[in-house]
Amino acid sequence: MADVELATAERVDWFNNQRLHSATGNIPPHEYKTNHYAQRQPQPAAGVNA
What we know:
Number of helices: 2
Low-confidence stretches: none
Strand content: under 5%
Radius of gyration: 17 Å
Mean pLDDT: 87
Largest sheet: none
Distance between the termini: 55 Å
Order of helices and strands: HH
């Protein structure tokens, strides 16, 4: 059972952080997400007057 859990964790890590996908410009998903959020402008919180 421990071997299955380890293999599953390794696969999830690879899928979420290392795989390359043509839809994201062949960069890992984690890097794509980091770049995406770095380009966004901060939005004021709802209900807060500036």
